[in-house]
Design goal:
Chain lengths: ~210, ~425, ~200
């Protein structure tokens, strides 16, 4: 329909998700931990140790063929345990649709901060780690580097784990919620200085 | 065979594709130094006329042949995603203009669709049609810059001046509707900034009439030009399977023969009602990408013509005062309108909690917005899936084994934007 | 010769460790019209006319170095295009090599990673050289008040003309170039310190 928002709760998107879930449950039982309950588009929760198998299945299964990886990114739920959500978005040209995989990852480092925080940024050994899917899709390698750079999450088996956007000697991982995005204080009125409030961490929804 | 012929035959398509499809991961670790000594390391960029932005390529060359390439980005990293978490949903719109700065309205559209889907709202039909017109004009504008800069790099300076001549007309239309030439922020959550002024439809029709023969003009200049053919045919060929694995879509994937377009797979804003073809290429080389983009400009102008023919008077914003500002004249008489206005400007609106992804077809591939909302007035996380990020990751597969001069042609054909990839 | 003041050599310092230089108007710069010949002639009618002629030559053919970074670069290219045509004011060619340029138009936002590159390109330009900071991002950090963007390129290089706008219209950039030309002309009229 011309007026429907893109894919919102349409039959096609729901069917696709069911098909993917059925295939994974059939071939790799136990790999999925249900859907993550988010609306309007739920994602499939994958166990960390089964991630690469699930991705390979999604790519190579002749009925699914999720051969175009869109991106992998992370969400930092600072006040939730486990802290990080790793989100994988995949596209299938054959099914003309997308699927989202999610992995929940706990933080293993002592409170990781930034340049202006009291605590030093986590070292490589201290960072949370999960397997890399760049062996399945080489195109995910650069996205995983970005997650490493901006969140401080390491990927096991990645061919080239180093920063991609920030300078190589930068300290801290800017997109973490406890990283203060320092702005220059700008006085807009005579009542004191204005400082950006991005340092305020916000919690996960109920 | 003469030396030149040998050189040319060594760089035929099949040969380049074999070398180019060596896995990127392998290239990083097993850089072979020649028996005569280590390869020469060259820095291409970040200040360079042909890198189309602040891109740095670390090349290792053996004579003129590139043996290793490592793209180094981040020279335009602006921290957009951190800023998105700091400002309200409406305030995010001007930020989105400045990411892929060659087609700002395309970015606006993707963001607006994402938030509208979270809100469960659909904009009125007139707004959808105007959005399609503006998005396609933005696509044409971006392709004109691509043509101008790509041809300029390869020596055809006239194409640069022609491209900007046409682009000025598009920028005049932008200025007519919003007052701003480039970063209009005209497509907003809930509809448009305002209804278009009376001269808009005539200006668009005049542009359609003016622009159609221009595509033929560009083809006259370049398509059969022996210099252009020599410099672009057979370069940077990577098979469609490999391109998909690298996350590359858009015109580059279409030039490899894959008819994939997000406007077909997951239509938005009424694209399923317009009649347009998806041009594809065959050899996946620089020349085919050029042909695909020229044809895309023709298809875009067809879409614009269809959309402007269907324009009818009507509202351009949704009827939800909690999301969209009330009309200006109501502020004189209605207290409720004043309160809505005040709340929207100071606090913004609060969409329900949720997580979603919306992808639109940008001029360089799928531009996606992954939005996580925690029911507050600011996005909790807004990740932008930038098509240029994957395009740049595909560079090594295309340039290794070719000449340094070919790197320039291949970079031009990929048409990435560093503002988009670095965010 | 007057005092030859040079900024401290900070190349190689990561930009996020640079203290703000505030080099806008405070950094002493070698006067444009200084030369041993003129100094030896002292001040008279001949030398003042010569300095005016030299300045005229300089401002009427200022060649910009290519330093387009982001969106402002697109408007800068538009200014060089056929509708607005920067070439009619003497900025005929945008030189890729800074060694052959005398004007650096910093067009776009400067990230922390790019700042040392900016400084190096500026250092590679021979004297006399001028800098136009085009757009609000180059002038003050613009709308990006965060960890990634240098809050004004005058923390890294000295700037002659600031152009507000996001991006500035091509006419605004032309106005900046003309202002800079007037500035150079005005500098020629001022007697230079000799000895």
């Amino acid at each position: 329909m011309a007026d429907a928002p893109q894919g919102a709760e349409t039959g096609a998107a729901v069917d696709l998700l069911q098909q993917v879930r059925a295939t994974i449950d059939d071939r790799l039982p136990g790999a999925l931990a249900g859907d993550d309950g988010s609306r309007p588009e739920p994602a499939l929760l994958v166990a960390v140790d089964r991630l690469v198998e699930v991705c390979r299945l999604l790519k190579e299964d002749p009925a699914l063929e999720f051969r175009l990886p869109l991106h992998v990114t992370a969400v930092d739920w600072l006040t939730r345990e486990p802290r990080f959500d790793l989100v994988y978005e995949l596209r299938s040209l054959k099914l003309k649709g997308r699927v989202r995989l999610k992995v929940r990852l706990a933080d293993t480092a002592p409170a990781g901060g930034g340049v202006y925080a009291d605590v030093a940024a986590p070292t490589m050994a201290e960072m949370p780690v999960l397997p890399s899917v760049s062996g399945v899709w080489p195109g995910m390698a650069c996205h995983e580097r970005e997650v490493f750079d901006l969140f401080g999450i390491r990927f096991e088996g990645h061919p080239d784990m180093r920063r991609i956007l920030m300078p190589s000697d930068w300290e801290g991982h800017p997109l973490r919620k406890d990283y203060v995005s320092f702005g220059e204080p700008v006085k807009f009125t005579d009542r004191g200085s204005f400082a950006p409030d991005s340092a305020v961490p916000r919690g996960a929804p109920d | 065979m003469s030396e030149l012929e040998t050189l040319v035959s060594e760089h035929d398509v099949s040969g380049a594709a074999q070398v180019a499809s060596a896995p990127y991961a392998e290239g990083l670790h097993h850089v072979a130094d020649t028996p005569d000594g280590p390869l020469m390391e060259l820095n291409m960029g970040p200040q360079h006329p042909s890198t189309h932005g602040v891109l740095r390529l670390v090349l290792r060359v053996e004579g003129e042949v590139v043996r290793y390439c490592d793209p180094d980005i981040g020279y335009l990293h602006t921290g957009f995603e951190k800023d998105f978490e700091r400002v309200t949903y409406h305030q995010c719109t001007p930020f989105t203009d400045r990411m892929d700065y060659l087609s700002p309205l395309g970015n606006n559209l993707g963001y607006a669709l994402t938030v509208e889907k979270l809100l469960g709202e659909t904009v009125p039909v007139r707004a959808q049609r105007i959005r399609v017109i503006l998005a396609e004009l933005a696509r044409i504008g971006s392709h004109l810059i691509w043509l101008g800069t790509h041809a300029l790099d390869l020596g055809a300076q006239s194409a640069f001046l022609y491209g900007w001549r046409e682009r000025e007309k598009i920028l005049e239309i932008n200025e007519m509707i919003s007052g701003v030439r480039m970063m209009t922020s005209f497509i907003r959550v809930g509809g448009l900034m305002a209804d278009t002024p009376p001269g808009f439809e005539d200006a668009v029709r005049e542009f359609v009439r003016y622009f159609r023969p221009r595509c033929d003009e560009y083809e006259d200049m370049l398509t059969s030009n022996p210099l252009w053919l020599d410099r672009t045919r057979g370069l940077g060929a990577v098979g469609p399977e490999k391109l998909m694995e690298l996350g590359v879509g858009g015109p580059v994937l279409r030039a490899a023969g894959v008819a994939h377009d997000v406007r077909r797979d997951e239509p938005y804003s009424g694209y399923e009602d317009y009649d347009f073809a998806i041009p594809t290429g065959v050899h996946s080389d620089v020349y085919d990408r050029y042909l695909v983009r020229i044809q895309e400009m023709r298809e875009s102008i067809n879409i614009v013509e269809q959309a402007v023919a269907r324009l009818e008077p009507g509202p351009v914003v949704i009827d939800n005062r909690k999301v969209v500002l009330p009309p200006r004249h109501e502020l004189d008489t209605s207290m409720e309108a004043v309160i809505h206005h005040f709340k929207l400007v100071t606090e913004g609106f609060r969409p329900p909690a949720g997580e979603l992804y919306v992808g639109v077809e940008g001029p360089r591939g799928e531009l996606g917005y992954h939005l996580v909302s925690d029911a507050s007035n600011k996005p909790y996380r807004l990740k932008v899936r930038a098509p240029s990020f994957s395009l740049i990751a595909a560079i090594p597969d295309m340039v290794v084994g070719g000449l340094v001069a070919d790197v320039v042609a291949i970079l031009g054909s990929l048409d990435f934007v560093l503002g988009d990839s670095d965010r | 010769m007057g005092v030859e003041a040079r900024p401290p050599d900070l190349t190689g310092t990561p930009p996020h460790q640079l203290a703000p230089l505030h080099t806008g108007l405070l950094l002493p710069r070698a006067p444009v019209t200084e030369s041993p010949l003129l100094s030896s002639l002292g001040h008279n009618f001949v030398t003042t006319t010569m300095t005016k002629v030299i300045a005229w030559g300089r401002y009427n053919s200022m060649w910009p170095a290519l330093f387009g970074l982001a969106c402002c670069a697109i408007e800068m290219m538009g200014t060089g295009g056929s509708k607005f045509d920067l070439a009619r004011f003497g900025a005929e060619v945008f030189r890729a090599s800074p060694r052959q340029a005398d004007l650096m138009i910093v067009a776009g936002r400067v990230s922390q990673k790019m700042a040392p590159v900016l400084r190096q390109i500026y250092d590679q330009m021979p004297e006399p050289k001028w800098v136009i900071s085009m757009g609000v991002c180059a002038s003050s950090g613009g709308m990006f008040n965060n960890y990634a963007i240098v809050q004004g390129v005058d923390k890294v290089v000295p700037v002659d003309v600031y152009v507000p706008g996001c991006p500035p219209r091509p006419e605004a950039l032309l106005d900046a170039v003309l202002k800079l030309q007037r500035k150079i002309r005005a500098q020629a009229a001022v007697p230079t310190a000799v000895g």
